[in-house]
Design brief:
This is Glucose-1-phosphate adenylyltransferase. The protein is α/β, with parallel strands linked by helices. The chain is built from 11 helices and 29 strands.
Length: about 425
């Protein structure tokens, strides 16, 4: 594991905001929060933020949950139960528990921290690293902590360089020549550009570093403001920009890249198409995101299961996979997977084929099925002979089909077919 060994991370607590539904992922988040959605063959989306914290040397972690949190909490209990109090480590799962009022859930991202101030204070962290739990990236938070301290900022905001035409979906910063933030606007129609770079903007990653006591002061002040929406991007950060010092920290300065990775990789997999594309990125010969980087591993639940298995070797009935990720407990029986991800426990019947498919755990693909550009939710049994991806009109009538021609298939959709 690559860590800098600096004491800053050891004096920090990572606080992951993982309560959002992610409604643009449609049926994928009907029964789970967005951070709990599967990704990359074995992981969940939240594993990236948590792994970044561990790999950066942070040993105090809290995760705030809210929307349909059962599968997320179950995953964290299984995958992240290795923290040990005797080593000054902690891992707290913090559902909205009406600690402030019996009538209120978390009202916003800032409130999700405010309601747990007493728990945070019990660990006495010097710094707080506030993280979104729903993005795919690798980043060393230690380097961001170092910039926060050296700049003397009240808050340091992680940011990405994005084209101006795409920036309206983000919180956007205007900065001076030293990357001090002079204005911060949520989802502006005309976003401010980077000085000297009129085509690009600095967009917030939803990552913030504070001195803990200063953060507590701001959360208490905000909680008393009747006009606040209790949100970091909408309330806390703009207030500090106006009344204090806010520093922009560029992702390029702390992103983690393996030797063969040619770009800084960050993805908001918040739509069905974006989720599909990010998963398929991993099937490239030289992927944009290297999941095999042992220096910066993505930790997740270790499944005790048999290895993947490929059986039958005759013309038209050969178990094979090309440019694909095949997880444990999969059986490809006389079938073909091409540029696809098969998550744990997927079974493919003879003469079936999948092309550009993201197949979530414990699905069963029936014989002679032919599927292209699909996402199949966990536990779905695909009927024998089903064809998807060849007739756009029919696909749109039976499944959720995106503008990019990706079909999302769920149990309920298959049940309707069989009625």
């Amino acid at each position: 594991m690559r860590t800098s060994g600096s004491p800053l991370a050891r004096d920090a607590m990572a606080y992951v905001l993982a309560g959002g539904r992610g409604s643009r992922l449609a049926e994928l988040t009907d029964n789970r929060a967005k951070p709990a959605v599967y990704f990359g063959g074995m992981s969940r989306i939240i594993d990236f933020a948590l792994s970044n914290a561990i790999n950066s040397g942070i040993r105090r972690i809290g995760v705030a949950t809210q929307y349909k949190a059962h599968s997320l909490i179950r995953h964290m209990n299984r995958a992240w139960n290795f923290m040990r109090p005797e080593r000054n480590e902690s891992f707290d799962i913090l559902p909205a528990s009406q600690r402030i009022s019996e009538m209120l859930w978390y009202e916003g991202t800032a409130d999700a921290v405010f309601q747990n101030i007493d728990i945070i204070a019990s660990y006495s962290p010097k710094y707080m690293v506030i993280l979104a739990g729903d993005h795919i990236y690798k980043m060393d938070y230690e380097l961001m902590l170092q910039e926060h301290v050296s700049s003397g900022a009240d808050v340091t905001v992680g940011c990405l360089v994005v084209p101006k035409k795409e920036a309206s979906g983000f919180g956007v910063m205007h900065v001076d020549e030293h990357d001090v933030i002079t204005s911060f606007v949520e989802k502006p129609k005309d976003p401010p550009t980077i000085p000297g770079d009129p085509d690009n903007c600095l967009a917030s990653m939803g990552i913030y570093v504070f001195d803990t006591e200063f953060l507590f002061e701001q959360l208490r002040r905000d909680a008393e403001d009747p006009d606040s929406k209790r949100d970091f991007g909408g309330d806390i950060i703009p207030y500090i920009v106006r009344h204090g010092k806010a520093q922009a920290h560029r992702f390029t300065n702390s992103c983690i890249r393996a030797a063969e990775e040619i770009e800084e990789y960050w993805r908001d997999v918040g739509t069905v198409d974006a989720y599909f594309d990010a998963n398929l990125d991993l099937t490239d010969t030289v992927p944009k995101l290297n999941m095999y980087d042992r220096d910066w591993p993505i930790w997740t639940d270790t499944v005790v299961a048999a290895p993947a298995k490929f059986v039958h070797d005759e013309e038209g009935r050969r178990g094979e996979a090309i440019s694909s990720l095949i997880s444990q407990d999969c059986i490809v029986s006389g079938a073909l997977a091409r540029r696809s991800l098969l998550f744990t426990g997927v079974k493919m019947g003879s003469y079936s084929s999948v092309n550009e498919a993201v197949i979530l755990p414990y699905c069963n693909i029936g014989r002679h099925a032919r599927l292209s550009r699909v996402i199949i939710d966990s536990g779905v049994r695909i009927p024998e002979g089903l064809v998807v991806g060849e007739d756009p009109v029919l696909d749109g009538q039976r499944f959720r089909r995106t503008d990019n021609g990706v079909c999302l298939i769920t149990k309920r959709m298959i049940e309707r077919l069989e009625m």
